[in-house]
Amino acid sequence: MTSLNNSRGAKAILPWVVWGLACIFYFYECLLQVSPSVMSNELMHDFAVTGHTLGILSGIYFYSYAAMQLPGGIMMDYFGPHRLLTLASFICAISTIAFGYTDNLYTASLARLMIGFGSAFAAVGAMKLATNWFHANRFAFLTGLMVTIGMLGAIGGEAPLALLIEWYGWRASMIAMGFAGLFITLLIFLIAKDHPKHIK
Fold first, then answer.
1. At CA 163, angle to CA 17 and CA 41, rounded to 5?
2. How many CB atoms lie within 10 A of CB 199?
3. CA distance 111 to 116
């Protein structure tokens, strides 16, 4: 009986874990989205650019992010959230590490473009998992909770990240965030599944 209860408990919590991992990725991408705003002076100094060029560097994220919203939804239906969220979080993480290491403005711009590309799958993936793992009457609540988690990521990309940059510098902070993204990728790869029927 105890074993049966434990099994039921694990099955009850698993949907929250799977969906929660997607929300953590959404939190992460929101943090990356706003990160240039707290290191603008450092970026302008290290890349020797003006505020105008820095605006382009920061905003290029949204070019790929916006462009991938519709294709991302179609791909999510076709390939499933597990594969795409794993790949997308990996792209975000590697691109963040590249952004932290590069001294070249064009490489930094490409890294930001790829971060936006990977980030485009986060919200869609979390909503797809919510649809697959929960009853339809919870979808609105889960979507609202996901957005709240994402906004907490955006808040985390302001004061907390600013402190981290002040203590360790923007490059070390970005590299550390990149490795954190790789850890998120690993968790999504190992734990997340497209649908409860994939759990044996």
1. 120
2. 11
3. 9
d(CA 107, CA 94): 13
| Contacts of 154 by beta carbon, 8 Å cutoff, 6+ apart | 30, 31, 33, 34
Which residues, 6 or more positions from 59, have their beta carbon under 8 angstroms from its beta carbon? none
Planar angle of CA 163, 98, 109, nearest 5 degrees? 90
Residue partners of 115: CB distance under 8 A and separation at least 6: 29, 32, 61, 91, 92, 95, 96, 99
pTM: 0.91
Contact 128, 15 (CB under 8 A): no
Query: Residue 91 in contact with residue 118, Cβ under 8 Å?
Result: yes
Q: Going residue by residue through the chain (200 aa), what tens digit of pLDDT does each one get?
A: 555 445 555 677 999 999 999 999 999 999 999 888 888 888 888 888 888 888 888 889 999 999 999 999 999 999 999 999 999 999 999 999 999 999 899 999 999 999 999 999 999 999 999 999 999 999 999 999 999 999 998 887 778 888 888 899 999 999 999 999 999 999 999 999 998 875 54
Cα 69 to its chain centre, rounded Å, is: 14
The Cα–Cα gap between 32 and 26 comes to 10
